[in-house]
Design a protein that fits this description.
248 residues, alpha/beta, 6-stranded mixed β-sheet, 5-stranded parallel β-sheet, 9 helices, elongated
Length: 248
């Protein structure tokens, strides 16, 4: 019987959300705790990669966070980003976010017309064969996107500009959940680092995305509930609701 569910992300800011509906429909307690947090690399740490961001004519950004750390590091290293720099963004939201840092012009900022797939930017990139690309990443990332570009004859230089760090679990907070919901491979790593002696047993683990499922398998955990691209359910609350409905 499921009584308590832990979601490894911040508590929603709105009263009505998919998690509150789980409580209303099934009477379960939903707790939230962010297993990880982000720290930017210092300029000194970044220089160890021997990368000069200004040697590239374009930047690939997979999140607002990557944009923040790209411009932060350039400022710390006293690098003036040229006005002619091109930005290839995973989504329109990330592209429009760049207005925080640059004078926005469509001929400098590119993003998919719909969705959030870099694959949809390939035609635009192929029209600029002389472009050189720097991709801003976290220290924990998969090779999937880099391999995708490589398979389409686009060379991308990965640049780690921020790191994902485990947030310690409070010593006075019990860890007695019936379901633990994880959203990223970094969350899986944080679970193991916080509780190195913990054994899953009858505890259910819900995972979002193939990367998280793969990380759980590699760490020796069992994935009981799945959601994300390629799965039956697009979100973890939906997948968990289905499980609870079938196991009342």
């Amino acid at each position: 019987m499921v009584h308590k569910i832990l979601f490894s992300q911040p508590r929603p800011t709105t009263e009505h959300n998919p998690y509150s509906r789980l409580t209303e429909q099934f009477g379960v307690q939903c707790d939230f705790y962010q297993f990880i947090h982000i720290e930017g690399l210092t300029a000194r740490e970044f220089r160890l990669q021997r990368i000069n961001p200004l040697e590239y004519s374009a930047v690939i950004l997979n999140s607002k966070l990557s944009a923040d750390h790209y411009f932060r590091l350039c400022e710390e290293m006293r690098l003036n980003v040229p006005e002619e720099m091109h930005y290839y963004c995973v989504s329109e939201q990330v592209g429009l976010y760049l207005q925080k840092y640059i004078q926005y012009r469509k001929r400098r900022v590119f993003f998919p017309e719909t969705g959030n797939r870099f694959e949809d930017l390939l035609p635009t990139m192929h029209r600029r064969p002389n472009e050189t690309y720097l991709m801003v990443l976290s220290d924990i990332h998969t090779q999937d996107q880099i391999n995708m570009f490589a398979s389409n004859n686009i060379e991308v230089k990965p640049a780690v500009m921020y790191r994902t760090v485990t947030t310690p679990w409070p010593e006075d907070k019990p860890f007695d959940y019936d379901i633990i919901a994880l959203f990223t491979p970094a969350g899986v790593k944080a679970l193991r680092e916080n509780f190195p002696e913990w054994r899953q047993g009858k505890t259910l683990i819900a995972a979002f995305g193939e990367g998280t499922i793969r990380a759980l398998d590699e760490t020796g955990f069992r994935t009981d509930i799945k959601a994300g691209p390629g799965q039956e359910f697009a979100s973890l609350p939906m997948a968990i609701a289905d499980y609870l409905e079938k196991n009342r």
